[in-house]
Amino acid sequence: MRNLTYFVATSLDGFIADPTGGFDDFLFEGDHMTALFEEYPDTLPAQGREALGIDAPNKNFDTVLMGRATYQVPGGLPSPYPHLRQYVASSRLVSTPPDVEVVADPLAKVRELKSESGLGIWLCGGGRLAATLLPEIDELVLKTHPIVLGKGIPLFAGEFPTARFTRASTRTFDTGVVFTTYTREEAA
Predict the structure, then answer these.
(1) How many Å is the Cα radius of gyration of the chain?
(2) N or C: which end of the chain has fewer CB within 10 A?
(3) Which of 29, 84, 32, 82 is nearest to 61 (CA)?
């Protein structure tokens, strides 16, 4: 059974983007980026992989699920992750390229995907989608940046049940960015 991993950058105060969905305040240079490129090349969009000369096989994920706003980020690509199976959770999105599938029921889709064999499933935002999928999230990989945004799109948005996770690992970089991995605690 495959895992669903919410792999996302966050501010110290728990926002994954500013109120407009932008993420320009996050750090894009430094030793944490080197680790990202080496350990998670599959999470880089096609234009980033091309610019960096990354043509490596996927290490962690073969599937990505994103919310409509994440998919339609300004300046985004119509097929941002062609090296992954791409799904967009939306009830309003009508047109996408053939390699991007729109799903109206992301919870059902994740359950279907988890029953298949393969690499992991990457939840690539946003906050409302993460709240909806919280019952199925097996792992959180939070890339916490040393910034306070004060407002924006929260890590989880909306109502959701309490879920407990256990810290599995923490890495601190010279940039001040901290990668923390949490795994879901099994219900007692």
Answers:
(1) 16
(2) C
(3) 84
C-beta separation of 184 from 139 below 8 A? yes
Q: In terms of Cα–Cα distance, which of 187, 170, 41, 64 is closest to 125? A: 64
Q: Which two tokens stand for residue 114?
A: 């988890």
Q: Which helix (H) or strand (E) holds 181?
A: strand 178-184
Residue 52 identity (one-letter amino acid): L
H or E segment and range at residue 64: strand 61-67
Domain range list for the chain: 4-184
10 Å Cβ neighbour count for 81? 24
Q: Per-residue pLDDT tens for 86-111?
A: 999 999 998 899 999 999 999 999 99
4-184 folds as Dihydrofolate Reductase, subunit A (3.40.430)
Exposure of 85 in the CB half-sphere (CA atoms within 13 A) = 13
Look at residue 102 in the predicted model and tell me its pLDDT.
Answer: 96
DSSP label at residue 2: P
